[in-house]
Amino acid sequence: MLKLFASDVVVSKGYQNTPAVKFSDKGDFVRFRVGQKVYDPRAADNHRWVNITVKCFDAGLIDRIRKMGLKEGSFINLTGRYDEDVWEDDETKEKRSMPCVILDDLEYSGGSGKRSGDGQKASNNQSNNAPTPASPAAAPAAAPQESFQMPGNFTGYESFGGGNNFFNL
């Protein structure tokens, strides 16, 4: 099994104007795509987007995604298992496949894709001079995204045990 960690990726647009985050009718499955702009000297403007499909079957995590209000343009960090979707093409009847990630955990990234004045990426990620998690100043000073308002007191992060050992909410 390959374990993946993706940092500061953005939830991509839905295919052909479909919703970016799709929940199953029963609510037991969610699917979305994430992407990141990467350097490629062969592409126009020396950059291209790399996208991958993310699937989640965990009921607790699906509920958390609903509470987060995950939508197109949200910056997230995620961990998951590499997998492959296999299906038969309706028109050509050929077997097709594409890589995907089975989601294990996700949280909002502090990134906004914008650069601050000092040339560093604007994010809530810890730096060398960042306070330690035990200090009260370790709590995030602002919402992860300026244009997105979290419902209630939900921060987008819950530890595996359901509690948060770093700061009180």
Characterise this structure.
- There is one protein chain.
- The protein has 169 residues and is mainly beta.
- The chain has a single domain (3-112, 128-138), classed as Nucleic acid-binding proteins (OB fold (Dihydrolipoamide Acetyltransferase, E2P)), CATH 2.40.50.
- The protein contains one helix and six strands, in the order ββββαββ.
- A five-stranded mixed beta barrel has the order 1-3-4-6-5.
- A hairpin with a 6-residue loop joins β5 and β6.
- Mean pLDDT is 75; it is low at 115-148 and 156-169.
Secondary structure blueprint with pairings:
Layout: E1 3-11, E2 22-23, E3 30-39, E4 47-56, H1 59-68, E5 75-88, E6 95-108
Parallel strand pairs: 4-6
Antiparallel strand pairs: 1-3, 1-5, 2-3, 3-4, 5-6
